[in-house]
Amino acid sequence: MPSHHNRRNRKSKKPQFTSHPVEVEITRLGAGGDGIGTDNKGRIIYMPYSLPGEIAVGKTIAKRGEGIAAKLESIQQPSKNRVNQKCDYFGQCGGCSMQHMADGAISDWKRETLTKTLHQKGLDDFPINPTKSIPAGTRRRARFAVKPTQNKCVFGFNSPFSKQIVDIETCPLLSPKLSEALSILRQLSGSIEGFSMGGDVQATETQNGLDILFVPNNNGELTLHDRENLIEFANQHQVARIAWENDGWVEPVCALLPADIKFAQTDVAVPIGAFLQPSQAGQDILVDLVCKAVSGAKKIADLYCGCGTFTLPLAALPQKPIIHAADGLEDQVSAMRKAVAGQKITVESIDLAKNPPSSDELNTFDAVVFDPPRAGAQRLAENLAWSNVETIVAVSCNPATLARDLRILVDGGYEIVEATPVDQFTWSAHLEAVVVLKRESL
Description:
Structural class: alpha/beta
Shape: globular
CATH class of the largest domain: Alpha Beta
Helix content: 10-25%
Distance between the termini: 73 Å
């Protein structure tokens, strides 16, 4: 008889998934933009690139939560919202998931997504404005996957849920300047000895030229020849800055010009890899919504301020308010501190997730704006809920954590005035939102 020890150490084989044909009527879209329906066996099927109302035919490929993921093979009954794809790489490249859907339908779906997410937290009875959308051809920042080979340098984006790189020549999402730079970035990436194992290349369009960051897969080291080539390349193509990341450490290889981004009328020399809104057009929409919401406020806190996306436009409002900006990213705070010297702006470096301002500290402000990362701002929301700040503006790229934080504020006595979905990640399922809350008095 086998011992208990042997039974505990006996490895159980994982059941192998068997693929099979499936036909399903799509009834809704999931949070990631996949079509969802139920097959004739009652199983939930997730079918990318399908739309509600369509009869989709495909093959199941893997288990996915409580359902099954499938690969689309054909559409038997197309939706009225189906349109032709705008890019030859759509379906192969993981950069876009919704090019098959009409732009107006995408806007409606994103507004509906925000509405449903807030409703799940009992947040209703306030206007949710139509989605403000940003067109393609405006992305000023992109991160490319690169793999040099003996014959060519594969340069592009990863396939959906895969490390395989789709080699691209063009991308309709990119700004004209980034689009023009694709071929030279490919050539440069394939010429660097320290990048022979590939990695990522992040390119950002700044006022003075491209800001390029190389992130090698193997923490490769630059040779002297590499450094000379990078400097020559920067001079030849009017590149503002080139940097190299090795094992988490970032080294500026050459900085010929300041990598400036303009916020309101102020130029900020942004740090390497700093967070920026993906497009100027998207940034302008968010700034306009935030500034209108705090019109008349004389003292404003901009929390999770980054390099000053909202701070500097808020300081330029007609009432010339006093602004206090805070963020935990020291390099970005430092960059803004240098840029705002002489203005009515104080800047603080603080970990807002762990040590947000207390309710008493928040009470010194007429309005608070916060734009946290995807994890949200739960502790800050808890302190705000006990404050008497008149106006709060929440900006978020994650509807789920936004709903959680708003629920805290509403439970604390705030009223949601309006919410506006913003779609600046064209043809993707990503969604941002700006929500305005008011409190008359405690």
